């Protein structure tokens, strides 16, 4: 989403995590996505890719007030660490010692805290999308996917409205376009995004 909003074009190599190509692992041995490479540099953390794109062109993003910047930084850090930790263990509880409900409860606490801190209209800070929106909405969407019935029954109505708006946005649909798996034997050049916001 940051790449789309920053009007950047890049070559996309779609991979399956169960079939990681050597070309990817040679760039980033940890074997997670995304991996962005340019000018002999490698970024393999989502926030690093977001910040790189934002530095290229931030004109479509909300320009924060000091209070908005503080709130944004706090929630980005909270979601990227604590929420992500519990979300992974909520989704894949069989791999861990705590029960799914324990981790679900920790996610709930954070979502309620977010709900009390925002007034969506339609994005977190108003009509213009922000770094906070694109940094945390994919995590919130994964939480909903893990148990939609539970998620929609909760008392975080601002969060639910925000996610509904996000999932119906042009940005979301451009970002979620499906691509064929990249084949290193017969590579095809695929440019992302294939569409622009304008």
Specify the CATH class of the largest domain: Mainly Alpha
Spatial strand order of the main sheet: 1-4
Radius of gyration: 18 Å
Q: State the distance separating the first and last CA atoms.
A: 14 Å
Which CATH architecture of the largest domain?
Up-down Bundle
How helical, in percent, are the residues? 40-55%
- What is the CATH topology of the largest domain? Glutathione S-transferase Yfyf (Class Pi), Chain A, domain 2
Number of helices, counting only DSSP H or I runs of 4 residues or more: 9
Keywords:
198 residues, mainly alpha, Glutaredoxin, Glutathione S-transferase Yfyf (Class Pi), Chain A, domain 2, 2 domains, two-stranded antiparallel ribbon, 4 strands, 5% strand, globular
Would you give an account of this structure?
The chain has 198 residues and is mainly alpha-helical. It is 52% helix and 5% strand. The chain folds into 2 domains: 2-59 and 178-192, Glutaredoxin (3-Layer(aba) Sandwich); 66-167, Glutathione S-transferase Yfyf (Class Pi), Chain A, domain 2, CATH 1.20.1050. The chain has helices at residues 2-5, 22-27, 46-56, 66-91, 100-117, 131-146, 148-152, 157-167, 170-175; strands spanning 10-11, 36-38, 41-43, 191-192. Helix 4 (66-91) packs antiparallel against helix 5 and helix 4 (66-91) packs parallel to helix 6. It is globular and about 50 Å long.
């Amino acid at each position: 989403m940051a790449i789309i909003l920053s009007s950047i074009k890049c070559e996309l190599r779609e991979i399956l995590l169960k079939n990681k190509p050597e070309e990817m692992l040679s760039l980033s041995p940890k074997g997670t996505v995304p991996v962005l490479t340019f000018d002999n540099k490698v970024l393999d953390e989502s926030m690093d890719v977001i910040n790189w794109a934002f530095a290229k062109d931030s004109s479509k993003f909300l320009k924060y007030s000091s209070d908005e910047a503080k709130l944004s930084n706090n929630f980005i850090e909270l979601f990227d660490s604590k929420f992500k930790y519990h979300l992974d263990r909520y989704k894949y509880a069989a791999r861990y010692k705590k029960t799914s409900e324990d981790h679900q409860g920790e996610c709930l606490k954070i979502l309620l805290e977010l709900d009390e801190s925002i007034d969506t209209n339609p994005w977190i800070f108003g009509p213009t999308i922000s770094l906070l929106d694109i940094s945390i909405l994919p995590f919130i969407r994964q939480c909903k996917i893990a148990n939609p019935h539970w998620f929609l029954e909760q008392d975080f109505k601002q969060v639910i409205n925000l996610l509904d708006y996000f999932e119906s946005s042009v940005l979301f649909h451009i970002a979620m376009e499906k691509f064929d798996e990249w084949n290193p034997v017969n590579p095809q050049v695929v440019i992302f995004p294939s569409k622009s916001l304008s």
